[in-house]
């Protein structure tokens, strides 16, 4: 599979002049739940300023693999990860790795919006507070405003920052969760089917947002919707039964897949 | 007359109805050659219940009424005219006559009772026969009426469903009416007490020394100031006990839900719950025989010579241990009920486990935790055995935990088991104290339920 590793294509207008070194580089990664192998020998590179989409049928391991990238699998006691995952060249599974720092650098947005049952302000301020990013109240106010601005939520909530985050609509809650992830200034944002609980209008709003955020971060998104992958991503990886079948430019994957299985999935023959 | 016989009679009628209806249903289906609307067993239950339930209701009512009728018959007998007027002697004579008449006693001790045995026996026989006949007639009417309704298309199935629902309703009403009955008697006796003692003196007075031997006419409101009891109750049950139970209960809940491995949790939780199953009297002697002397020795060891062997501290500490399971199981449930997505969200922000617990899980679970603490408090202030054995009897209005103190529950026991007669204010004060306790625990439970309800709305 390692031949799938792609150099950024300088011919792509929007990414011209990108540095070619990968942000995250996974090498021969296997994940086990107890005896069961959920991910088999996956190698993949993820780049800053790209949206990388993971697609594949349910249970193919794409979410599992996503969660290895910020070690959220650590919370499942039976999960075990083999292989190497490098963030800026450093193995995140080495014993000295500070998981807390890792997760501040690799943020995550979940399938179902999960704002804390606190005010909108407190939801955003949570990360900066625990990481000691801001020292004064005005600095914190600034971070909250900037994060909400970037998540495109500021205009909707600026007059009610003290209302509960759980009182927002589903789409707003998800943007709040994105703003919360942005607030600690991560380098990578992982999104695990961020739109699957949202209606089409809220979904469109999130997709726009993902496109705007791409300029600053490396974004990895797991999605069930091939249309969504085609709309928002520049790179697409197709997973099937724990294997990475094909990884390449989104346009290539959708118009000219090399693998038969990819073609079958994309044309809707299974999955 | 034994109510058991009448109930058995009703049961027999029900069974007879059940069997008759079942065979009738089979016969109907065989004769008409088509399927019945309901299975034969539903027809059987329909008739069986109609025969049994009215009969058993009549039987129970009759069992409650007939002793009064027997008594009335005895008193109307000419032999009863010679009975003494004084209540106790009179009652014991009547009791002897009844005992001999029913066969539970061999012979009378008081000769005045002998003359009453015959009328008592006659009355009992008469009313027993009436009871049996009444039960049989009612049961038979119910059974026959329902039996005549059986048809192939009779909707026995839905009707049995409705009858079952009615029976379940009755079952739940029994508990509710019992509560109201207890409350009514409490209110009645409390009103009698407040007829003798000014409620203001009772609620706000600071001196408590009711004397049950003193003439009720001279009962003085100054001796019925219950404030030291309220203070003792709150100090032991709501302050000292909670200082023990909240940190330990919360700590164990957090450890068990967040840190313990599933195997460890599987072992530790039931063991912790055993604490809740220990009889309070066992905690009582543990407090009185082990903890209280230990506290006294330590206090004397550090130079507090006045420390007594009964102390609020001993009772409060042991009570705190007793209610750890209440706090921890409620806290455990409400922390576990916080969606896993909250925890993941916090961990994914780079929060450590303890930051996640402190800043996300506990605040989200707080309503449930508060409700658990309130239930624990209401349990603690109603607790009796520990304070009876370890806290002492002296009504002290003091903040010193080493002093002996007394509580509302202790004084209720003391007043009711004391020498005073039942119309003496000292005895009646037990009801007023019980009323206060009832009002406070009711309010705490009510608040706790409201809090839990709001919490549920937030997460479902």
TrEMBL record, chain B:
One GO BP annotation of this record: phosphate ion transport
Regarding the membrane, this protein is recorded as: Multi-pass membrane protein
Keywords on this record? Cell inner membrane, Cell membrane, Membrane, Phosphate transport, Transmembrane, Transmembrane helix, Transport
- GO function terms (MF aspect): phosphate transmembrane transporter activity
- The superkingdom listed in its UniProt entry is Bacteria
| Cell compartments where the protein resides | Cell inner membrane; Cell membrane
Q: Which CDD domains match?
A: TM_PBP2
The entry's cellular-component GO terms read: plasma membrane
Recorded hits in InterPro entries, A to Z, give:
MetI-like, MetI-like_sf, Phosphate_PstC, PstC_N
Where is the major localization of this protein? membrane
Question: Domain ABC transmembrane type-1, which positions?
Answer: 231-448
Q: What does this protein do?
A: Part of the binding-protein-dependent transport system for phosphate; probably responsible for the translocation of the substrate across the membrane.
Q: NCBIfam families this protein is in? A: phosphate_pstC
Designated name of the protein: Phosphate transport system permease protein
Q: Which organism is it from?
A: Croceicoccus mobilis
């Amino acid at each position: 599979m390692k031949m799938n590793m792609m150099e950024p294509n300088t011919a792509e207008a929007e990414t011209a002049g990108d540095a070619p070194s990968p942000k995250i580089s996974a090498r021969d990664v296997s994940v086990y739940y107890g005896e069961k192998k959920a991910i088999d020998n996956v190698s993949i590179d993820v780049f800053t300023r790209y949206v990388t989409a993971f697609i594949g049928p349910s249970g193919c391991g794409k979410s599992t693999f996503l969660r290895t990238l910020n070690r959220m699998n650590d919370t499942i006691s039976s999960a075990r990860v083999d292989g190497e995952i490098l963030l800026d060249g450093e193995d995140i599974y080495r014993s000295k790795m500070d998981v807390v720092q890792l997760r501040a650098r690799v943020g995550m947005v979940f399938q179902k919006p999960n704002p804390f049952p606190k005010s909108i302000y407190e939801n955003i301020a949570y990360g900066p507070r625990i990481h000691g990013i801001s020292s004064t109240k005005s600095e914190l106010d600034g971070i909250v405003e900037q994060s909400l601005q970037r998540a495109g939520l500021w205009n909707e909530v600026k007059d009610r920052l003290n209302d509960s985050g759980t009182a927002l609509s589903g789409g707003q809650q998800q943007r709040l969760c994105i703003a919360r992830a942005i607030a600690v200034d991560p380098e990578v944002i992982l999104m695990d089917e961020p739109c699957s609980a949202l209606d089409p209008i809220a979904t469109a709003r999130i997709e726009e947002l993902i496109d705007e955020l791409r300029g600053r971060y490396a974004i990895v998104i797991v999605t069930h919707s091939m249309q969504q992958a085609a709309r928002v991503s520049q790179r697409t990886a197709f997973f099937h039964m724990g294997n990475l079948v094909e990884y390449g430019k989104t346009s290539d994957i959708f118009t000219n897949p090399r693998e038969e299985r990819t073609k079958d999935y994309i044309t809707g023959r299974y999955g | 007359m034994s109510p058991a016989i009448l109930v058995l009679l009703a049961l027999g009628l029900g069974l007879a109805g059940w069997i008759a209806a079942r065979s009738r249903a089979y016969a109907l289906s065989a004769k008409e050659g088509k399927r019945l609307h309901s299975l034969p067993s539903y027809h059987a239950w329909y008739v069986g219940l109609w025969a049994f339930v009215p009969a058993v209701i009549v039987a129970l009512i009759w069992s409650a009424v007939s002793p009064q009728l027997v008594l009335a018959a005895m008193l109307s007998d000419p032999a009863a005219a010679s009975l003494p007027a004084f209540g106790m002697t009179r009652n014991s004579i009547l009791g002897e006559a009844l005992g001999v008449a029913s066969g539970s006693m061999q012979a009378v001790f008081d000769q005045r009772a002998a003359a009453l045995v015959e009328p008592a026996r006659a009355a009992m026989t008469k009313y027993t026969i009436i009871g049996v006949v009444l039960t049989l007639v009612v049961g038979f009417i119910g059974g026959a009426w329902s039996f005549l309704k059986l048809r192939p298309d009779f909707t026995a199935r839905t009707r049995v469903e409705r009858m079952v629902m009615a029976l379940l309703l009755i079952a739940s009403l029994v508990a509710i009416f019992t509560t109201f009955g207890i409350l009514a008697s409490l209110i009645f006796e409390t009103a009698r007490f407040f007829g003798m003692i000014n409620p203001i003196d009772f609620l706000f007075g600071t001196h408590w020394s009711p004397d049950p031997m003193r003439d009720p006419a001279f009962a003085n409101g100054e001796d019925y100031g219950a404030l030291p009891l309220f203070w003792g109750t709150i100090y032991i049950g709501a302050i000292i006990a909670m200082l023990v139970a909240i940190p330990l209960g919360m700590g164990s809940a957090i450890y068990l839900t967040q840190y313990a491995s599933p195997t460890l949790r599987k072992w530790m939780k039931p063991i912790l719950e055993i604490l809740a199953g220990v009889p309070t009297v066992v905690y009582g002697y543990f407090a009185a025989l082990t903890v209280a002397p230990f506290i006294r020795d330590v206090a004397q060891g550090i130079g507090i010579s006045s420390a007594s062997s009964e102390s609020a501290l001993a009772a409060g500490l042991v009570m705190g241990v007793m209610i750890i399971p209440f706090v921890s199981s409620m806290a455990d449930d409400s922390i576990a009920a916080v969606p896993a997505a909250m925890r993941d969200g916090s961990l994914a922000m780079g929060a450590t486990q303890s930051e996640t617990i402190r800043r996300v899980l506990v605040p989200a679970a707080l309503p449930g935790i508060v409700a658990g603490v309130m239930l624990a408090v209401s349990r603690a202030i109603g607790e009796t055995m520990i304070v009876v054995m370890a806290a002492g009897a002296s009504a002290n209005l003091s903040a010193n935990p080493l002093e002996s103190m007394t509580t509302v529950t202790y004084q209720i026991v003391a007043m009711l088991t004391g020498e005073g007669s039942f119309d003496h204010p000292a005895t009646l004060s037990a009801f007023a104290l019980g009323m206060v306790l009832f009002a406070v625990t009711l309010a705490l439970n009510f608040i706790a339920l409201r809090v839990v309800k709001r919490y549920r709305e937030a997460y479902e």
